[in-house]
Every structure is written in C-alpha cells, then in structure tokens.
Amino acid sequence: MTLALDLGLDLAFGALILATALAAVAGQGLFRAVVFFITYGLLLALVWARLGAYDVALAEGVIGAGLTGVLLLMAQGRLRRADALADPPARGKLAAALAGASVTAALVWAWFTLPLPQRIDLDAPMAASGVENPVTAVLLNFRAWDTLLESIVLLAALVGLWMLARDAEWRAPLGPGFHARAGGVLSVFGRLLPPVGLIYGVWLVWAGADQTGGAFQGGTVLAAVILVAMMAGLARAPRVGAPAWHAALAFGPGVFLLAGIAMIAVGGGFLTLPPEFAKPVTVTIEAALTLSIAVTLALLVVGPPEQQNGGGT
Amino acid sequence: MTFWLHLIILGLLGSLAGALWRVWVGPAQADRMMAAQLIGTTGIGVLVLLAVLQDWAALTVALALALLAAMAAIGFVKAASSDGAGDPEECAPGPTDARDGQR
Amino acid sequence: MPEGLADIATIVLTGIGLVFFLAGTVGLIRFPDVFSRLHALTKADNLGLGFIVLGAGFQADDWTQLAKLGLIWALALLAAGTVAQLVARAALRQEGRE
Hints:
The complex is a heterotrimer.
Chain A: H1 2-25, H2 30-50, H3 54-81, H4 90-113, H5 123-129, H6 134-142, H7 144-162, H8 185-207, H9 215-231, H10 243-265, H11 275-302
Chain B: H1 2-25, H2 29-53, H3 58-67, H4 71-80
Chain C: H1 4-30, H2 34-57, H3 63-93
C-alpha cells in the first residue's frame, strides 16, 4: 500500500513539474511565464529533496527563490517601462519550439541509449578528503579545477555585465538606485531578515563540510541578504571602482589559486590536497569563496551602473 | 504513519496544483504573485513532511526557502513601482511624501 | 498504524494543516477579486504551515530539529506578512494592468 503511495507521490511530482514547465513556455504574456518559471524552480527543489539530493535541492532553492525570481521580475518591469513587452512574432516562436523539442528528443534518445552510470565507490577517497559531505569533497578536492574555473567564470560574467553600462553612467552607483519608505514594511523587513540570513548563510558553509550545505549555497544566501538590505534602501550599491568591493570579488578565486599553488610546495601538486592538509585547506577555500560568491551574485542581480532617476512618483 | 504522511503530502501537492491554476488565469499580476507565494509556503510544508518521512536534512532546504520566501515578491513590488526601484508604500495616500525614501 | 500519543498528535495536527492549505487554495480559486483572494490565503497558509510544523515537531529526535522547525515557521510568517502588505499596495496602484 505504501509502495503504491510512494509511486503516486513520484507521479504527482512529475506531473506538476511537467505542467509548470509547459505553462512557462506556452501561452501569452511575459509576466505569467516568469512566475511559472519561479514556481518551476521551487518544484525542482522539492523534487531534488524527494530524490534525497539535499545539497542540490538547497542550491536550486536558494538560487531559484533568492535570486532568479528577483532578476527576472525586475527585467520584466524594465521591459514594461521601456514599452518593449510585445510577444515575439509567431515564426520565431515556432523555431524556438522546434529547437526545444529537438533538444528534448536528443535527451530522451541519450537516456535510452547510454549505459546507466556505475555507482562510484567513494569510501576510500572520502577518507582522504578531510570532510564528511561527499558533495563538498567532490567540489573542492576531487574536482577542484572545475570549481576554481567556475568561480572565475562568475567574476567574468560580472565584468561582462558591467561592460553593458553606458559611458556616461560608468561612474554612477550600480543598479537602479533602490529606495523605500523609511520605517515602512519593506525597510523593517530589511532590518529583520539580514541578521538571520547572515547566521544561516555562514552556518551553511560551516556545516557544509560534514552535512547539507556548502560555499555556493551559503554564498547565495548571503547574496540574498545583501540584496534585501539594498532593496530595502538600507545599504547603498557601490560604484564600479570601489576598492573594498573589488577586493571581496577577487578574494575567493585568489585564495583558491594561492592554495592550489601552495599545494605544490607541500608536495601535492597544483590543487592536489594531501590528506593531512585537506580539511583546513578545504575550509579556508570555502570561506574565501563564500565571500566572493555572495558579493558577485548580489552585484550580478543589482545590474550595471545607471544614472538614478530619483523619486518614486 | 508513513502511509498518513504520504497522503498529506499528496493533499498538499493537490492544493499546490490549485494555486498553479490561479497563476495561469491571473488576471492581475498580484494574483499570480500571491499564488506563487502560496505555492512557496506549500512547498515548505512538503519539505517539512519529507524531513519526517525521509531525512531531517530536508529541514535545511525548508529553512532556506522560508528565509528567502519574500525575495521574489519584493522584486515584484520594486519592478511594479514607477521607476523600478521604489516601494509601493511611498505612494500611499496620506501625509507621506512620495520622495520620502530619498531623504 | 498509529503507535503512541506522538503519532496521534502528528496525524491530527498535519491533517488540520492540510485542511487550512486546502481552504486557502479554495479561497484563492473561488473569491471574486484580488484583495479578497489575498485575504483568504494569507491567513490560511500561515496557519496551515503552523500546524504542519507542529505535527512534524512531534516526530523530532532532538531539540535542534525543533528549533529549526520553529525558525521555519517564524520566517514564513515574517515573509508572508511582508509580502501580503507590499503586494496588496502594489495591486492598489496597478489594478487591472496586465
């Protein structure tokens, strides 16, 4: 009986995901599509949790709930103010639908053609990794190259975003110049949430060594905290040249690189962590990465420098 | 107990599907946004029950979603304000001046 | 099936929680205008999640799980209250805009 219910639950999750994904791409109206996409991210987090992949669920949840929604809704608002909300012509949609359908078909084909991956035996390497959470061990030890390059990609993305600024606005503060009514609901919320978010984000990084959590998830929570403080009008967005923010952006990739080079000196090899140093080095890199991920993601959502247009009328 | 928790989660997912319908029909942007908010809260409920059913690690995910539950809606009210950066309370009828937030 | 008082408490409380969620969704679907729909669901989902959290609390093994459960509900309440207020005001300003 419970087995049937187990299957029923999985089917219900699958049906909801499919319905939400279809609703996000079908139908008219950008706003509706954006809200469905936000919902889709949330459902995906639920499904990852259902599958037991709590680290992935956490990453999906914090990115989807904390950042993507804000980014897309604010982009939609910008298009509306610029009177650019019209749906693309039907021919473009048909091409997009065909392209999407062929990707889906290719994935289905790959699913049935490729052999199922063998479960890798992680027991021996885990003992030498210095941490208990296999996801953290893979990200910061076994596949440290990937993670190092990813942290640099994030930085490159931010630089690319800043290049979109108009020359005349280059020295303006980043983003649209958030403001809120002093003492209003939003600014009270902006005072209540950041302390809790700060503790939770740092805890996620610390706990990530041994249980669900990690630098990326913790950093994203901290990015959301920075965003809330800015959107509630309590923290000013920096300018492109602000040295302290530059330092925060480069800190994580920098420490990662230096730690990788230092491992050559102690006899490992670039980014090869000897077991006796694995735990302290992993935790140091994670802490530094967290800061940079938090600041980079927050500034990516805030956007390029812009001339502020004042008042809320 | 396992049996009952499965039933409750299925019920919550059914309720979630009802909210999806409201996201689809709208008609106001606020309708879609509030329906998404309800879906978020329902999702937190599902995760709490998954924590009991499978593994308490799911609580960490639920906590993250609860912490960030208001983010999208704040993005929405920002985008809905006239300059894309404001706060709907700044334009409330009453003595509050629209430029209050700038001071 | 149920063994012990804790299980009975969980079954009753999660059941009540589900009823509140369903009531909120019915309100969201059936009520005629945007503000009454807002009103319906902000109450229902807060109480619904509260009962679910309470029900789950009876299955907790240690106090950290209870603390997390309490924090989840507190944060959800804070978010729901803030969002309802802000979205309602935004809706007042842009009634009917699509």
